[in-house]
Amino acid sequence: MHRAAKKVAKWYGAWAFALLAIAALGNSFSGHGEYGVSTHLWLTITGLPLSLLSWYVPNGTVLGVLVAGLIGTAQWTAVAEANARWEAWRQRRQVKKP
Question: What three-state secondary structure class fits 98?
């Protein structure tokens, strides 16, 4: 895994974990699912387009937030890895050209 992909996985994973903690604590102490719905929506927005698949899981639950976080982390890590490989390929190709 490229260094940039590791950084993306770490930071987006931390973002998803923080929102998961907010959803879990909010559902535990408030007795309603407003925190779960809000955090699920935030993770869906920041993880578009694949995180829309998390809406097949019950909305606003901690499980739904977890699924949205995992999908978003996997998606953005894959995008960062693909971008790093593309840049490495372009640089390698430019070196061979002259």
Answer: coil
CA dihedral 53, 32, 12, 79 (to 10 degrees): 10
**Nearest of 7, 10, 5, 19 to residue 51 by alpha carbon:** 19
Can you count the helices (H) and strands (E) in the chain?
A: 3, 0
Look at residues 17, 8, 6 and name the one whose alpha carbon lies nearest to residue 39.
Answer: 17
The string of pLDDT tens digits covering residues 43-61 is: 999 999 999 999 999 988 9
Residues 24/49, Cβ–Cβ less than 8 Å: no
Q: Is the dihedral of CA 56, 62, 66, 72 positive or negative?
A: positive
